[in-house]
């Protein structure tokens, strides 16, 4: 559905007299399949929005190519516009107009007739549970309601692909869960959904496939499960008293299923193992044998943050 | 055809939002009326005019051109608000004509200016101003072209600078000399030669002269076609340039 090769964009920004060049996107290759929720995961400033704005024809790439829903981004941007929907990061509704007016206007900007636009607006308001507020000014909406109007705007012309730039940023947990349902519903309707996010749990739970982006480059791509599997094995956290830790380390070091062993400063061990589920009973047996009492035992499966950490050397939570 | 439809779509939306704001409508009507009523008593002695009507023939066209210039130049602020709200970005991902995005907005500015102009003219009629309807319509055309140009330029600049903080001083610096050197409020007939020399390079000075000639019933005067041609050319250039900014503006 989307295929990009070597997509690049730099910005020149002026600070005083000096001009600085920011390489916002440095050669992005992507293949997004029809009907999937594809996620772009990365910290702020990674270049997610810039990539999306290039794909949505809002800014011209400095280099590279892209085909979007069968239309060539460079040769036929007008056709790309007809086939995609785009919901910008910072909102797209006007305070003084109502959801219904915005939807009708937006549909008509796509060349849809007035009567048809009104029908579509009514249907979209219904689908997004907005009918109750449809004729109130947008400035009176809650964050979640407003975001739903914006998504409805993005799909009013029934595009093949919709780009959602950080659709859940700034929403409370309940509205977020609600928004996830809406996004899944779009996929169920046969649409291809391309979202950006800097939330690990969102990428993990919502997306069929993700590309992890950092500093203008895609550093990893795959299904969340595949990506996590690449980070070999699980981590078993063994909670111990400080006094018992050295002996426990001695006992477990050299066990065939322990790939690597680290002691924790406050007492306890971190064991890197292939398969946590089979390692834990053996650890328990061994420590019991040695007469060591343990306070806790925890299985830590690799998260997307661990993937990000191994690929970039930084934690996404910190950046 | 598509272009006309797109322009109409944007124009309709803009007019609808304008009418929804009663404060704006009130200010738009009230302001020119104030000019007319508070300036009126000063006019005859200040212009050394033989009658009140003669004074109005000089003052009213200047006032109208002034409104056209300022009404247009400050429209960019509204666009920056739309830019910030993401409305422009949202429009630019649709296949709508980029020229229509500009023209729909500029035409709203032209229409609201013409409404002001009609109110002022009607009021001035009470004060004994007399103009032929044909001349008046041509004068309105001149005003429409001026407003079209200034609002288009203001939109283009707004898309370039993207912030009110930059737009305000910029527009003021442009507007001030333009205003002072166009003889808008007082004709430059009494000005020293060097000042008139500079004014000759000010297109608005030609526009004011043309409008005054029309109000004076002097349709045959060269000033009329000169003023109309200059404003028409500048309006076309302004619209062309600003539409390009709509086509390629970044964020
Ligand atoms: N219009 C612009 N002018 C200058 N720099 C920009 C512009 N847009 C984005 N950038 C820079 O490009 C980089 C990537 O930004 P962005 O694509 O918005 O990242 P993300 O959406 O992943 O947070 C950042 O360093 C940002 O400051
Ligand atoms: Mg972003």
TrEMBL record, chain A:
PROSITE patterns: ABC_TRANSPORTER_1, ABC_TRANSPORTER_2. It is found in: Cell membrane. Gene3D superfamilies: P-loop containing nucleotide triphosphate hydrolases. The keyword Membrane applies. Signal peptide: none annotated. The keyword Plastid does not apply. It is a peripheral membrane protein. Coiled coil: none annotated. GO terms for biological process: daunorubicin transport; doxorubicin transport; response to antibiotic. Keywords: Antibiotic resistance, ATP-binding, Cell membrane, Membrane, Nucleotide-binding, Translocase, Transport. It holds the Pfam family ABC_tran. InterPro entries: AAA+_ATPase (IPR003593), ABC_transporter-like_ATP-bd (IPR003439), ABC_transporter-like_CS (IPR017871), ABC_transporter_ATP-binding (IPR050763), DrrA (IPR005894), DrrA1/2-like_C (IPR025302), P-loop_NTPase (IPR027417). NCBIfam families: drrA. Belongs to the ABC transporter superfamily. Drug exporter-1 (DrugE1) (TC 3.A.1.105) family. This is ABC transporter. The lineage of its organism: Bacteria, Bacillati, Actinomycetota, Actinomycetes, Micromonosporales.
UniProtKB/TrEMBL annotation, chain B:
One of its GO terms (biological process) is response to antibiotic. Keywords: Antibiotic resistance, Cell membrane, Membrane, Transmembrane, Transmembrane helix, Transport. It is found in: Cell membrane; Membrane. GO terms for molecular function: ABC-type transporter activity. PROSITE patterns: ABC_TM2. Residues 23-249 form the ABC transmembrane type-2 domain. InterPro entries: ABC2_TM (IPR013525), ABC2_TM_bact-type (IPR047817), ABC_2_transport (IPR000412), T7SS_ABC-Transporter (IPR051328). The chain crosses the membrane at residues 21-43, 63-85, 106-127, 139-158, 178-195, 224-243. It is a multi-pass membrane protein. It holds the Pfam family ABC2_membrane. The keyword Membrane applies. Belongs to the ABC-2 integral membrane protein family. PANTHER family: TRANSPORT PERMEASE PROTEIN, TRANSPORT PERMEASE YVFS-RELATED. This is Transport permease protein. It comes from Micromonospora ureilytica.
